[in-house]
Amino acid sequence: MRFLLLFLFALPALPTSGQAIKLSDKPTKTVFAIKAIDDKTEADIPAHFIIKTSLARKKFEGNSRVGKEFEFILTRADTLDVIATAKGYQEAEELMVVTCDTCANYGYAIRLEKADSVFRNLQVNQAIRLDKVYFDQSSYHMRPESYEQLDKLVRTLQTQPALSIEIAGHTDNVGDRRLNQLLSENRAKVITNYLVRNGIPEKRLRYNGYGDTRPAAPNDVEENKRKNRRVEFVVLGK
């Protein structure tokens, strides 16, 4: 986490002799506008923000676009926990101490670093867990948030034409073993179909479901069972 202290303040104009200071002259809110930029090019990036305030105990959530910041209202000095996410970039989190409660407007750009776009240093027989591929419980319906990591696998296969892989589905030992084997196979098949739809030749792919026959950890506690409910790709050749 990166910590950034922002000290925002405004100096009011001094009144002339005999002039009263009106409380209404003091801004009662700050419009905070935030966006994300590429750490190297400083170009705007469409991003999603989750912002939590410590003192006011409020949560703001929204998106910025190219040329358009995400705006929210602060009504007091506060500490902000800001989380920014964007496709193809590493998540960033910054803690901001905003001391200004008299500034009408404030803008800030959070810098994001690009995520690694391909899987690297692959070795034959190596198994890589697809830890950001998600399915509905007891189902082979794949959730849309899985696409980002699968797109990374697509790019890996595109940039390494000799690479061939197996998609391997696994489960824990809870429930009917036959159904678990079928579930693991269908999940592996869904991922393989996604790769084919995105231009990867079928001859470079195969899929298998192993059910609970190849556990990554003992099926004794829930934490270990979660480790066993997984999908991996295994390097067959390169």
From TrEMBL:
Residues 1-20 form the signal peptide. This is OmpA/MotB domain protein. Keywords: Cell outer membrane, Membrane, Signal. SUPFAM superfamilies: OmpA-like. Its main location: membrane. It comes from the Bacteria. One of its GO terms (cellular component) is cell outer membrane. Residues 123-238 form the OmpA-like domain. Transmembrane segments: none annotated. PANTHER family: LIPOPROTEIN YIAD-RELATED, STATOR ELEMENT OF FLAGELLAR MOTOR COMPLEX. It holds the Pfam family OmpA. It is found in: Cell outer membrane.
